[in-house]
Amino acid sequence: MSDVGSGGFKPIGNRMMGRPEQKAPEQKLREVSDMYEKHFLREMMKAMRSTVKEGGFIQSNQAEKIFREQLDDQYVEKWGERGGIGLSNMIYDQLMNKFGVAMGVRAPVTKPVGPLAMDEKSNLALKPFQHPGKKQALSYRFDTESAPGAASEVKAPWDGVLLGKRSLADDQTLVEIGHDNGLKSQMVFKGGLSKVSTGEKLQAGDTLGFLSPEAKSLYWTIEPQSEPRPETVSE
């Protein structure tokens, strides 16, 4: 029996109807970020155009104004294709930090197990401070001289990868870790490192090094991994 309908046409099955494209959450956030940047650029172009006063005997007609707006839109699109002005990346990072966990594209931040053991017996004094040039970072100072017998092992706060290590002045050591939860840790302390290599995978609680007996403080700075490389913090 033919499947031709009464009107002489074959019915269109579901297989001919394409499903809407399912976009990944990261792509949705990126598109929203790009949209806001382009909106900002268009408003900036309008503001720049408004500063140019028309004069003389020839005035722009409506068609010329429409063409000028379309040309400005093309400029904005080209800027976006070439990477924009960086505003989109800033917005994307902020959206990811705020909604990434809820959207399932970023792991929730669990309680850290380092960089020093913090328990009832440690008696460590933890003081927040403002990292120079890092307004969006969280920075803490562990005072060890006021806690006799405090644990000397420096540990990885969360799972991640060792991004780098280097020796500083006054026998201090700097360590950077890129964590799986999207954060980055920088630790500066007086002491030495254990046998860990750059690029090595770390588990939360892994020993990174040891404080020297004369160490007074350990500095810990936390920031999103997309932020610029932090400056060295030292006494």
UniProtKB/TrEMBL annotation:
This protein's name: Flagellar biosynthesis protein FlgJ
Pfam families: Rod-binding
Keywords of this entry: Cell projection, Cilium, Flagellum
Comp. bias (Basic and acidic residues): 18-29
Region described as Disordered: spans on this chain: 1-29
Naturally occurring in which organism (per UniProt): Bdellovibrio bacteriovorus
Domain Flagellar protein FlgJ N-terminal: 46-94
Keyword Membrane: no
Ranges annotated as biased composition (Gly residues): 1-10
